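[Discussion] Sanity-checking designs against the backbone

I'm trying to build intuition for which residues belong where. Below is a structure token string of 187 positions. I'd appreciate it if someone posts a full sequence so I can compare it with mine line by line.
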């Protein structure tokens, strides 16, 4: 698997996200990232959802640990990618939300909207997302990792039919006590 530890990531965009993807890709490459671009040419780009499926497949098949997706708002590509098994996708519009998507939710695909995200903001969001993993930055918050790991695992293993058969309750839920929020946190 190509990992962020080894500075490897996969990216893709539709027509609306293509310019932002290019800015972010150049930034990552200038910072020694190996970027696999599934949509390298602006002509003939697939529709947003098809790019989302394609990026998601690279995660589902174990080829890449993380992906960056770009469309007009980030919403459509995010929804499509989230339909692919093992993809935990997020759409973000700030550096803090991009970091938190990885650190609190274990997301492995970040979607950005080319209509809303300026190039330098997109670059900073990509850095924050790619440099964060579940629990990062919250080591002094008792129970943070365990609490969020339960959420990640329950989403990863969610079976709607079992959930429905169990009266719309999570089957065999686990619990983790989340300690008081440290006062220094701004988010």
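Best answer:
Here's mine. Compare freely.
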């Amino acid at each position: 698997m190509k990992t962020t530890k080894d500075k490897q990531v996969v990216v893709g965009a539709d027509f609306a996200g293509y310019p932002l993807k290019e800015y972010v890709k150049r930034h990552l490459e200038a910072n020694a990232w190996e970027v696999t671009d599934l949509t390298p040419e602006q002509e003939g780009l697939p529709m947003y959802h098809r790019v989302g499926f394609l990026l998601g497949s690279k995660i589902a098949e174990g080829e890449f640990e993380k992906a960056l997706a770009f469309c007009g708002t980030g919403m459509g590509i995010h929804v499509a990618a989230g339909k692919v098994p093992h993809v935990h996708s997020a759409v973000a519009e700030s550096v803090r939300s991009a970091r938190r998507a990885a650190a609190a939710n274990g997301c492995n695909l970040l979607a950005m909207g080319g209509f809303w995200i300026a190039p330098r903001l997109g670059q900073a969001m990509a850095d924050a997302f790619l440099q964060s993993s579940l629990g990062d930055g919250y080591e002094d918050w008792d129970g943070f990792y365990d609490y969020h790991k339960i959420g990640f695992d329950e989403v990863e293993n969610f079976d709607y039919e079992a959930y429905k058969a169990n009266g719309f309750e999570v089957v065999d839920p686990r619990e983790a006590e989340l300690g008081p929020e440290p006062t220094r946190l701004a988010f």
